[in-house]
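Supplementary Note 3. Input sequence used for the single-chain structure prediction.
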Amino acid sequence: MSANAVSDEQQTQWIEVCDKNALDSDTGVCALINGKQIAVFYVGKLDEVFAIDNYDPIGKANVLSRGIIGTQGEHICVASPLYKEHYDLRTGECLENSDIRVTAYAVKIENGKVLIAV
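The predicted structure, written as C-alpha cells, is reproduced below.
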C-alpha cells in the first residue's frame, strides 16, 4: 500500500443509529444519516439488522422503511409499499429487475447499539 493509500477499514465511518432493543421485529424504521435516509430493518427470526437506502428508485419516493419484510427463495427482502418490487436486504438488488438496486450498508451491533457503515 502506498503512503497515500488508505485501507477500506480506515475509510469506513460507523454511525450509531439506535439501541437494538428499540427496533421492533420484522419492521423497518428510517434513520437520517449525513442527510441521507436509510431504512433499517430488524429481522427477528434471524436476530439480524439490515440497512438499505430508503429511496425506492422505481416509485421515486423514500418509502422502503415502510415495506413488508419477507423471503423469496433464499433472499431476505423488503417489498416496496408502492409497486411491490422486492429488494434484497443483504445486497440491495431488486429481485424483479437485476439492473436496479439500492445501496446496502454494513451493520454491526456493539454494546446493544446498532451501527451502520457509511
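DSSP finds one helix and twelve strands in the chain. The first strand starts at residue 14 and ends at 19.
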